[in-house]
Amino acid sequence: MENSWFLERKDLFFTNIVHSFLESKILFDGLYEDYKQNKPVPFERMDNWIGTDAKKGPLWSLKDSSHKLFRKSSSKISLSEYLFDWTLGSVFHEGMKLKEDVYQLEAYLPSYDNIDTSKNASEIEEILREYLTVIDKATINLEAEMESIKNLFTKAVERLKELLVNYAHNGLLIRFLLEHEPLVEKALGEKSLEYIIDSLYPRHPENAYCTAGKSCLEGGWYQNALQYFTRALEVNPQHSEAKQHREETQQKLSSGGKT
Questions:
Q1: What span, in angstroms and rounded, lies between the C-alpha atoms of 35 and 153?
Q2: Which end of the chain, N or C, is less surrounded by CB atoms within 10 Å?
Q3: Contact between 246 and 209 (Cβ < 8 Å)
Q4: Is 51 helix (H, G, I), strand (E, B) or coil?
C-alpha cells in the first residue's frame, strides 16, 4: 500500500515529470535541428542531456522519475500513463545508443594527417579501411537513432496529451502550464496549451483558472489566487465558484494576508 506521504505529493511528482519532459524534448529538438543541418552532434551535449549513473542528466532523471511514479506505484495506472512511461524508457535507451555512437565518431574517427604512412603504407591503409568501416556503421546507426528518438518523442507527446485529461484536478500542474506557456508551446507546438486546456475543461477554460486559483489559495499565495479567480471571471462572469473564492481571497488579503 502506498504511504500517505507519496499520495499527498503525487500531483507534485507528476507536475515535475511534465516540466522535465518539456525541457528534455526541447534539448533533443535542438540536437536534431543541428544534425539535420549537417552539423556534428557534440558528445558533450549528449552527455549533458543523458548523463551517467553517477551524474544523471535531464533525460536520465526524467526516466527514473517516470518509472517511480508509474511502474513502482501499487495503484493501477491508465493505459496512457503506461504507454507514456514505456515510451520515455524507449527514448532513454535509444539515447544511450546514440550517445555511444556520437562518442565513437568524435573520439575515434581516424585522421590520415596524424598518422605516419611513409612505412608499411599498404598495411596501414588496410587497417584504416577497417576502422572506417566501423565509423561508417556508427554514422548509419546515428541517423537511425536520431530518427527513432524523434518519432518516440512524437508518440510521447500524444500519450502525454491523452493522460493529462486525468489530471484536471491537479492545481499545481495547471498553474505550471498556465505560467509556462512559452515552454509548453516550444516543446509541444503552437497553440498546444489551448488544446490541452480545452481537453481538460471542454468549452470551459475558466475552470482552468479557477483550479489554478484554488491551488494558490491553498498554498497561501493570495495575490496569485486573486489574479487567477479574476481571470476566470473575465472568461465567464457568471462562474459562481470563482466568485466565491475571489471574495474569500479578498477577505484574507484585507485581514493581513500579503502573500
A1: 16
A2: N
A3: no
A4: strand
